[in-house]
Amino acid sequence: MEMTITEKILALHAGLDHVEPGELIMAKVDLALGNDVTAPIAIDEFRRHNGKDVFDRQKVVLVPDHFTPNKDIKSAIQCKILRDFAKEKGIENYFEVGAAGIEHALLPESGLVAPGDLIIGADSHTCTYGAVGAFSTGVGSTDLAAAMMSGKAWFKVPQTIKFVYHSSSNGRLKDWVYGKDVILYTIGQIGVDGALYKAMEFTGDVIDAMNMSGRFTICNMVIEAGGKNGVVIPDTTTSNYVNQRVKRPYTVFASDKGARYENIYEYDLTNLKPQVAFPHLPENTRNIDEVGRIDIDQAFVGSCTNGWIEDLRIAASVIRGRKVNTNVRMIVIPATRKIYQQALKEGLIEAFVEAGAVFSTPTCGPCLGGHMGVLAPGERAVATTNRNFKGRMGDLRSEVYLANPAIVAASAVLGRIGSPEELGIEGGVA
């Protein structure tokens, strides 16, 4: 019986020849991930159920990234719980501040996720790793505790929706249009519950032509459409990325030609323009030329969605030689230490700082309204983050607009949401 890539990965890890959508399975996990917000709860559950050792010291990953460097005493305690547990159980993949980064960029960069893997994490954006052809999804802290003990988790096999993106320019998108715009456009089309508990499989010549950072961005935000997981079938771009990082065998899967899909959406993105998601849902998308005048107080480039080196290059290409508007705070946060180092080598940090932006150590910080850029009542931010729910980045009376790094950088200069073209910049950075 033909299967999708998602079904094949789940079947393999459940020890089955075949699985059907809706079937309940128990599957072995290749990685169980927790952070400084969710893992302390899982660790408490682990101890409450008399957990002895973790199932595999290499396959449990703990990353303090949300409120780090510690913003207050409570966050310091949370991180200490992780640190002490990792030391007690001999967990090899514990990442301390200075070595750590935002988990969903750190794991692929470190070679911890590979095609064909089954990964769970107590964080909703664990779906990011589908970009390498893995099945990855977010779970609750109780499920994480059980997986840390047993190496297993239960799943209901999801239906799969296929998304096929075409462009008449051999998959090339218009200038200043990136993976962020593709996923925002998609969510705008199907809504925040348009793929509820579904696997979202991304194909087409636009995906074929897209770099890994764009694919990570797309898979990262499937949860904003209600998706269970997002996945891109591995190709040469995938293998070039993975083979430089993964030091163990892995299995590449692809969907069968006769695989069954709940639905297939096809989009012609030849004329897609940069997208902006208005408050307070990611589905409230508009083309950049439909935005109107939206003055801003803060511009943020970073997060697990758009903190990749490619994103920093895009933003720097817009901001270099210009100044951040005097009415705007611009904050730039690389997703990992290696990205920070690369930005330093390429002179990107200098470009941001000379423009008047703040460049920070890797942290989730502002994305969840944690620290390093919390919004006051009535303030507006344009951000490369993944969510713009009410109160997401601060006060309930603040507003968050989602956009790609080029739009955010241009907006920082303009003092309002706008595009690089308004600054006379042509030819978007790929």
Pick out its properties.
alpha/beta, Aconitase, domain 3, 2 domains, 18 strands
How would you classify the quaternary structure?
A: single chain
What is the CATH architecture assignment of the largest domain?
2-Layer Sandwich
Main CATH class of the largest domain: Alpha Beta
Q: Figure out the total of helices.
A: 14
Description of the structure:
With 430 residues, the protein is of the alpha/beta class. The protein folds into two domains: 5-267, Aconitase, domain 3 (2-Layer Sandwich); 276-423, Aconitase, domain 3 (2-Layer Sandwich), CATH 3.30.499. Helices cover 30% and strands 17% of the residues. The protein is built from 14 helices and 18 strands. It has helices at 5-14, 39-48, 73-89, 103-109, 141-150, 179-190, 205-208, 212-220, 236-242, 303-306, 309-319, 337-345, 348-355, 405-414, and strands at residues 24-28, 31-35, 60-63, 93-94, 118-121, 135-138, 152-156, 160-166, 199-203, 229-232, 263-268, 275-277, 285-287, 298-301, 329-332, 358-359, 380-383, 399-402. Strand 12 (275-277) and strand 13 (285-287) form a beta hairpin. Helix 6 (179-190) packs parallel to helix 8 (212-220), helix 11 (309-319) crosses helix 13 (348-355) and helix 11 (309-319) packs parallel to helix 14. The radius of gyration is 21 Å and the shape is globular. The mean pLDDT is 96.
